[in-house]
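Please review this one:
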Amino acid sequence: MIIRPVTAAELPVLQDIERAAGEPFRALGMAAIADDEPPAVADLDRFRRAGHAWVAVDPERADGAPVAYLIGEPLAEAGGAVFHIEQVSVHPRAARRGVGRALIEHAADRARAEGARALTLTTFTDVPWNAPYYARLGFRPLTDAGLTPALRAVRTHEAELGLDRWPRLCMRRDLPGATDPVTARTAP
């Protein structure tokens, strides 16, 4: 897989990936997730312009179209910034090939280089390719008491969107070796 920044012309492709990636939720009784509209192109473009949107491209595909994407943004926290993964979606035809893992590792490398001390994300607790998958990638669940104000704001927004109809949680993966761009010190 080749991981690279998304181009403006590819933003509608990300919406197609999101729709396809949502379909498996239907089999879990989560039709509302499957039917949910993907982020608007303008919202996706905000991440692209910030340099926080990447795609995975299968070099063997003749059309060169992305098969997965990840978007995120830095969140300020006491003790240093974290990089919050807003969305990682893999088209079902590319699933189970390590594409999501590769995107997350790319985001971790970029976040570490930008001084983030951790990755965070929110996810469905009981969906096999959500919380259990992220736990295998080194993310740990956060208790409500462990949520920062920024993560509380993310969770509040998700609740407003109706995502709390199913159990959700925040997860965090520390990034050892992150360099604080201000002090130039490396985190343990």
